[in-house]
Specification:
The complex is a heterodimer of chains A (242) and B (414). Chain A is of the alpha/beta class. Chain A is built from seven helices and twelve strands. Chain A is 29% helix and 29% strand. Chain B is built from 15 helices and 16 strands. The chains are: A alpha/beta (242), B alpha/beta (414). The structure holds zinc ion.
Chain lengths: 242, 414
Amino acid sequence: MITILSVFPELLDLNGDAQNALVLAQRARWAGWDARVHNLALGDSLEGEAPQAVIVGSGAESSAPRVLEGLRALEGSLRAWSADGIPLLAVGTGWELLSESVELSSGDALEGLGIFSGHSVARARVSDDLVVDSDFGRLIGFENHAREYRAVAGARALGTVVYGVGNSLAAEPRLEGEVVGTSIGTHLHGPVLAKNPGLADYLLGLITDGRYEANNATAERVDASAQAARNQIAVRLGLAAE
Amino acid sequence: MASTRYVPAILVGRAVRFIARLRKRDGGSAIPGLVVNRIAPGLLPHALNSFPDGLVIVSGSSGKSTTTKMIVAILRAHGRTVFTNPSTANISQGLTSALLEKASVTGRLSDRMAVLEMDEGHGALVARDLDPHTVILTNVMTDQIDRFFESEQVAELLERIAERATGTVVYNADDALLAELVDRLAAAAVGFGAAPDVLAAAPRGLGYARQVQSRPRATVEVTAVHGRAATLDWDGVSMTVELPARGIHYAVDAAAAVCGASEVLGPDFDATIAVDAISTLEPVFARGEVTRVRGMPVEFVLVQNPASFQLNVDELDPELDQVLMAIGSDVRDPSYFWPVDLSAMPPVTVVTGSKAHELALQLEYQGVAVGALEPDLATAIDTFFALPAPKHGIKTVIFSADSMRRTRTHLGLA
Ligand SMILES: [Zn+2]
């Protein structure tokens, strides 16, 4: 049984980011695996849960201090899983809270868990399409953040920005996200794994020790919709269709 | 106050409106309002504060259009002449344009009172200079089209509007953010809401950012909802109204309107007149509207935000076998709908609109069967209406606002 842990989905599903857990579980089921999503509510105990992947979505800034407190309570488990190569996908504020620090719009800063290397600093809001060239193919999605992410020198990015802002307008080349081992942080919000099955299947490969294969009729039909949605956005942005 | 101070600005505004109409046949442009607000920023508050029987402001995340229309209908049925505003994105320009249409050259309106719908953002700005007698607050929803406002920020904006009330604040007593806000106000407050068993019947609540756990009886309570019939209890008087569409949220809007109208009218309020006024309203939006297309009955369901999406989908008959869903370019980033749980939906016969592929992704991952995927709306509509009558229920069309307009145009509906 594959268990995907969705962390505090009642607070971290602002744009459907928590639904990335559903995407992984469904793709696994379509390929014949038993899979479930464990929705971990803030304040609930893990009760010895040993998930095969972890999803941390994005939430409202006002809930960030509460979410951070909840993440601290999970810190030991999160670090142990990351050391064991359990994949983690963190989006938006969820990612920022797992990094070194987050500056809120009030000017106050929160100290994060430091699983990712960067500092998030307040900036004017970006709200637009985001296209990234990555090792997992071209990633297409939407960014909506009022902070820029300053990774440490030498940190590994998720990819290079083709359209949009990504981590910071100041950096050259412009980078998006951060990858630490099997943990991925990104501004690509919402169901990024549905629209980018290449990234989903990379995570499923890690989850199943390379045994996962996407060649089933349902995945092919659904991925055709994803491809059409991706191409529609790419063409609108003046990029080549795939 | 009948000064001649605003005569020049109004005359200029009318001239601009005249020119705008010559250039654009349908008139109704926001430009005259823009011009007048620039040259005479005091005109709008002056006019709105001059109604002899006062001003009522309706605001909140959702339900304000329905509530406004209901309260206007109740007041007019009681013989009051009421000025009201069409809902528009920019309240001050829209209102000023509407004023230019109806005001005398000194900036006065002949109506005795006004009931104005205001969104939180513009409303908080405009309300700074207004002295409404009554402010009605519908709710603070978690998710909105304009989701760059967080719920707490929305509540703050509503508080700024509510602070202007010289008489009463009428508020949704089930909404915790509103209940807390009202506690901080100097003005008198009167609540409306839904009885506990009515709330319990809504599987996911009503979409409020935070719901009150328990509270004393409100002045107007929704005590039962069956289809389009709702029973309200107004201080011990039972009123059964026919809603403009089915759904608990419309019943709560009716409770807000009855509560607001009874505050405004005082002893003149007549429950029988109010019941008739609400029950004879035309459907406010296409949401929940049943009409006939090419000889067949069809239900139109409008999706305006994730909260209304969830509520409307939860009310669908799971056995429906002919459903069309259309999401258009008005939904900039459809990931915003992914927190909506569609898994209990009936199968979708046709998915269409410029965001059809993204909508199909959500349906597929949430386990809803998708029949045909046809991004071209006109083709999809024609295919859907060419299908024989459904085996169960009636043809059902679920659409975003942009797709609704295109669908209605394509079908030749008003
Ligand atoms: Zn039925």
